[in-house]
Amino acid sequence: MILMSDSRKIIVVGSGPAAYTAAIYSARADLNPLIIGGMATGGQLMLTSEVENFPGFPEPVLGPELMERMKKQCERLGVSIINEDVSKIDLSSRPFHLETTEGKAFASETVIIATGATAQWLGIESEKKLMGHGVSACATCDGFFFKGKEVVVVGGGDTALEEALFLSKFASKVIVIHRRDQLRASRIMQDRAFKNSKLSFVWDSMVSEVLGNGHVSGVRVKNLKTDKLSDIACHGFFVAIGHKPTVDFLGGQLKLDNHGYIITDGRTRTSVPGVFAAGDVMDSRYRQAVTAAGTGCMAALEAERFLAGEK
Questions:
Q1: Which entry of 74, 142, 234, 280 is annotated as an active-site residue?
Q2: Which entry of 30, 74, 85, 141 is annotated as an active-site residue?
Q3: Active-site annotation holder among 6, 30, 138, 248
Q4: Strand, coil or helix: what is 153?
């Protein structure tokens, strides 16, 4: 058992929009929440250049700036924040016990898991270099910036085609690059994609390099059957090969769906009473800052009601 050194009513694990919103609502309910935010704070928005679809900002706001504002709001309300990862968590009985990578130990009557999900990337250096400068993993977030321009989408599943079809509303042309000679997406998604005149496909190919100096100008593509290299000009490069929810630290103590996302009951309640989940760690469909914040609010309210029901 973890040695208890600090006891709380609510601990929020994570540091994105869901986590900060949960902490804000918990603090306003006088529950003295603690955020264990992780070493890499801010979630996916830290990789986003400009955010135009978060309410309350007439002008675009940089993703990191939005996260910093949320963090400062938490701090103004007295929320304790530590930038360490959770290395151990015991959800077998209440109070729940958590331990960080730096050896700090905590106990809490309720826990809100808001650790998000990370986009799976190709892993090439140029992709990382141009991230936020034409490289994206979220068409809904960034598609608006590519009005009348040509973009490339990598992937062959439902997510890739959903991204491509959404981008076709703005882009003049959407090129889908896939490693195989046929898509993995559902038949209905394939039908929609093939009927869209703005979409074209490059088969049996992989992107070996993202081209550009300061901003994406194209991609270098390798044909996996012939090894031939060719360059495709584009202004945007969208990686749509899936997301991985951050749940490994839970050790299988919560029920997950087939894709590894935490299962909730529609009210952010998980399979363990007193444990709630918010944001992208339980949302494989929307993955937006505003929906993450909304579920963070829900989780905090549910946790408050859970605690009140025990009095």
A1: 142
A2: 141
A3: 138
A4: strand
Which pLDDT does position 134 carry in this prediction?
95
- Report the amino acid identity of residue 223: N
By CB atoms closer than 10 A (0-12, 13-18, 19+), residue 92 is: exposed
68-112 pLDDT, tens digit each: 999 999 999 999 999 999 999 999 999 999 999 999 999 999 999
Which stretches of the chain are DSSP H helices? Answer: 17-28, 63-76, 125-129, 139-142, 158-167, 187-195, 289-308
- pTM value is 0.78
Average pLDDT, the chain: 93
Query: What backbone torsions phi and psi does residue 309 show, to the nearest 5 degrees?
Result: -70, -15
Quote the Cα angle for 205-149-55, to 5°.
110
Residue 234 designated active-site: no
Q: What is the pLDDT of residues 271-286, one digit of tens each?
A: 999 999 999 999 988 8
Query: Which phi and psi (to 5°) does residue 26 adopt?
Result: -65, -40
Structure confidence at residue 47 as a pLDDT band (50, 70, 90) = low
Sorted by sequence, the CB contacts under 8 Å of residue 302 that are 6+ apart come out as 267, 268, 269, 276
Rounded Cα distance, 102 and 91, in Å:
20
Q: What whole-number distance in Å separates Cα of residue 47 and Cα of residue 286? A: 17
Residue 146 DSSP one-character state: G
Query: Distance between CA 70 and CA 283 in Å, rounded?
Result: 21
Give the three-state DSSP class for 306.
helix
* 3-class state of residue 302 by DSSP: helix
Residue 142 annotated among the catalytic residues of the structure: yes
- Asked, as a colleague might, if the bond just before 245 is cis with ω within 30 of 0, I would say no
